[in-house]
Amino acid sequence: MVSNNIYLRLSRCEAVCNQLRYEMDDILKEAYDNACEQQDAEQAAALARKIRNRLLAATDDKCTLDRVLPDVPSGSTFTSWLAWLKALGDIKTNEWGSYRQHLRDITDQQGFPFDIDWGTEPED
Questions:
Q1: Is residue 50 included in any domain, yes or no?
Q2: Is 65 inside a domain boundary?
Q3: pLDDT digits over 53-76, tens only?
Q4: Could you tell me which of 25, 43, 92, 100 has the fewest CB atoms within 10 Å of its CB?
Q5: What is the tally of structural domains in the chain?
Q6: Nearest to 46 by CA among 28, 20, 60, 21
Q7: Longest C-alpha distance within the chain, in Å?
């Protein structure tokens, strides 16, 4: 009885935290838009980096190495290691890797911090 109550409380807390996270994303976006309207480059850049970091954090579970890393070859042949390295390169250039790199590169975009192409999150 007590343990069920704890799990119910934990699930409610998780729901509240998720709602606050979504609201925080909206507040950050609104603050960024306001900084852009006021042409406050320093504030817009800081907020853009915060938004970018939140977007990157939201994709961590899609790209963490323990999830996507290919098995290390058991043999010691050059061909098996070369294939493994190629698989690592494929991870970097797959849709999620490309999206994450695009997010990391927003500060290098021509219109930063006022005109940012945030990219599109890939489908699962």
A1: yes
A2: yes
A3: 999 988 887 776 656 667 778 777
A4: 92
A5: 1
A6: 28
A7: 60
